[in-house]
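Supplementary Text 2. Reproducibility record for the structural model of the 84-residue chain.

All settings were left at their defaults, and a single model was retained for analysis rather than an ensemble. We include the record here because the model underlies the residue-level annotations in Supplementary Table 4.
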Amino acid sequence: MSEINDGYDAVRENYPAILTTAQVAEMLDLNVRTVLNMAGDGRLPASRLAGSRKFHYVRDQIIDTLIANTVVPEGSNQTSSTGS
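Retained model, structure tokens:
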């Protein structure tokens, strides 16, 4: 396993590689319905097997989404990773 230094080591240690909707809701401190809505409209990366109504989430994709959507306070010297 490669060394990733992004501050999410505890999340990787406490959650499996493939997550359920309930696990994502717990990890992000959101309601399960909110996670389902976000997966349904593409705000959270999710997969669903053909003919299934159940979403599955790749833990590292959820972490990548959090990193990509980090809010940088105004007046900070940091630049946005989105290039805006």
